[in-house]
Each structure stands twice: as structure tokens, then as C-alpha cells.
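Hi R.,

Here's the chain you asked about this morning:
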Amino acid sequence: MSKREKGYIYIFTILLISLLAIFFYFIYSYMSGSTFISKNRLESLQANYALESTLNIKISQDDFQKDLEDFIFKESSNKLGIKKLPEDTELLSLNFKREDYEDEKNKYIDLISLKSQIKYKDTLVGGRIRGHYINKIYKEEDGILNSSKVNGEALNSLREKFACDDWTDKNNKKIYLDGDFIYDYQGGEYIIFEEIEVYDEESDSYIKKLNPLYDVSKKDIIIQKSGTLKFLSSTRGQIFIINDKVVFNDNTLSGIIILKENAQIANTCTLNGYLIDLYDRNSGIGVKYSSRVFSLYGYLLPEYIKFQPISLNYYDIEDNT
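And here is the predicted structure, written out as C-alpha cells:
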């Protein structure tokens, strides 16, 4: 083999080794880059899981319901706390945000988000769980909540909460009725009367007369314990809790009527508001749904505020450190 041939072989060998070195370098770089990307993707995915866990931990805490109600009714901006965080997770922020809006039909849609930002290891991530906050049981378009609208266990739970009247304790503008009474509007006031017999000298006989007992123009809640309550007029938008017999006069009432287990309905009326009839006692109340009663009394009603999640979203945040 000549020196020239040996030189060619030597040059070819060097070129081959160089090409192989470059090839393996690119393979190594690609594998290193892929490993780095895979590691980042894995950490990003783990960060998303950590954020979701953080939000779910807060929702499951005992104080979540109170925090939510305070935010809705009192517009509280208190910082939300969380008892335990996922491993390798630092909480940066946690708060509520109202996102109510009107749809294309001008219908009011209640919406709230629970938002959080966290740092998981070296990854920053933010996200929110959005949901409705007014319990759907108070949104029946026919204005009637009865046993067919609530599932078995939930129905029993709701009946128990309405069985006693403790839920009304947040409002002291209430009155209890025990006996036979008449509700009427006279002289510019809403009044509850009792019917009494008095002696009339002209006729020399006893006649029935309405004796005013309670001015309920400024009362929000009328609680009937027993007896008969007869309506002769319209009402001013109150809550009526009926435990016994109620007599209507084909009149139009406004407010919320709650029929207890022993309620008895006589005659008919139209109610502008909402009827809560968990024992299916209604036989004469026609209802026209009005959301206005909930702006007045929603804060009182059992389970009126209930978080009902509909979506979960993530977003990246910048590290400014």
C-alpha cells in the first residue's frame, strides 16, 4: 500500500471519527434536552396536581362554608387559610372572586371562583375552581320546592333543618302565632287580628269584631305554631311558616311560604315569590317565581349558599424573584 493510499485512509478515518463524534454529541444533546423537557413537563404536571389538591383541601375544610357565606353576605375580604398543604408546596395566595353576569337572555347567573397561586418545588402555577354559589334547589323556575325536586338523603337533611325554626334566629323581626288569627291590611298597616265577640247594645246581642293584636308591617317572619291563620289581604313580602291551617281568600301574596308537615290549605291564592313544600301539602297555592325574595331573605334559608363546582382552570405565573 502506497503512502498516498495510507494518507487517504488516515484522513478518512479522522473524518469518520469526527462525524461519529458529532453524531453522538447530537444524540447526547437531544437526550439531555429531552430529559430536561420531560423533567419540566413532569414537574409542571405535578404542580397542577398540587394546585388542584390545595383548592380541594380548602373546599373540604370545615371553615369553607362560613368563609363562603361571609364573602357573599358580608363582602368579607379576609385572607383565606388552609390547614395543610401538599408536600413541596408553598401557598402564595388563596381567595374568592365574584364573577356574576347576565346571559344573552338577561338572566342573572351567580358565579364565584376560588383562586390560588402556589409554588411547587421550582414551578409557579395559578388556577381557579369556578362554580355557582346559590343552591339550585332555590332556583326552581316554577317557584315550588317539593319532595320531587330533592333526592332522598338530601330531602331528609333539608326537612330536619326546616323542622325547627332555629334558622330564623339571624332575624329578630319575627312573631309567633298560637291560636286563630286574621291577617289584613287596614289603615296603611299590615295587622294581625283576633276575632272576638262583644256585646252590642243597639242590637242587644253579641257580634263578632276584629281586635288588632300585632302590627306586622315591620315584621319579616310570621311563624304559626298552631290554630288557623286567615288572609284577607295581600302581604308585604314576608316569610310565612305554616304549621297548621291556613285560609286564603283568592288573594295575591308576596314572599316565601313554608308548609310544614301538618299544614292544611283552604281556598286558593297566588304567591309571588317561592313556596317550600317538602311534605307536598300544597293544594291551592299558585306560584309565580320571584328571585327578589332571596335578595331579602336568602341569608336566612338553610343551605341557600352551596358551592357547586363547574370548571377547573390553570395558568402560568411569572417568577419575579
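One quick note: Residues 3-60 form the longest helix (58 residues).

Cheers,
M.
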